[in-house]
Write a structure and sequence with these properties.
Number of strands: 10
Catalytic activity: isopentenyl diphosphate = dimethylallyl diphosphate
Strand content: 25-35%
Radius of gyration: 18 Å
Family: Belongs to the IPP isomerase type 1 family.
Structural class: alpha+beta
CATH class: Alpha Beta
Number of domains: 1
Largest sheet: 5 strands, mixed
Cofactor: Mg(2+)
CATH topology: Nucleoside Triphosphate Pyrophosphohydrolase
Helix content: 25-40%
Shape: globular
Pfam families: NUDIX
GO cellular component, one term: cytoplasm
Length: 255
Amino acid sequence: ADASTFHRHASYLLGGPPPLRHLCSVVTMPEVTMDHLDEKQVQLLSEMCILIDENDCKVGADTKKNCHLNSNIDKGLLHRAFSVFIFNSEEKLLLQQRSDAKITFPGCFTNTCCSHPLHTDSELEEKDALGVRRAAQRRLQAELGIPVEQVTPEEMTYLTRIHYKAQSDGIWGEHEIDYILFMQKDVELSPDPNEIKSHCYVSKEQLKEMLGKAKRKELKITPWFSLIAETFLFKWWDNLQNLKQFMDHNNIHHM
């Protein structure tokens, strides 16, 4: 980078956090080169995510790109997200390996589907987390090719919310309040290779083996999936037929 670029970056980084009102609209962007990134994934960066405060109250909207820049995350930018866990009739969990084209955490294994509700009327609906469940239905079809009629919002159990932050690399990261959605059903799959490198169903024992391999750096797992697996997942998994006892819509687990 030339000297002028360096000074622009330096002045941005040294400028300190913007006033909160700016966080509620659009946060000023540092220059980020995206020439080397996947074209289809770059197009998705213009989608509008839902900005929230630490109590999950909506404060505005911003692009997926702005929401995932570490420079903005460091200033407190936080958005709404979800993580879906689909189990088949044998109680095995469907995992996906994120494609190498993904901008954050490429090539990492994770739960069935992770994404964001968008700042649209249908996905902003907060009653019973209906907007989030609609977003999950949309992304399960987009990523895994599951027909929408096989993953209706009514079939998804909204358990609780998790607040976490994680860096993917020096530029990109995650800072989300993540709605946990469970579902048990045998579904048809036709994954989009731009989104998903591979997928598999695993038993509890197989997942524990994968978590061990991740600790030994033999494979990569997303930080949110790792956090959920190490804290809540196996307890929930043991009680797939009786999840009501774990539903907590009042508290947000800060991790």
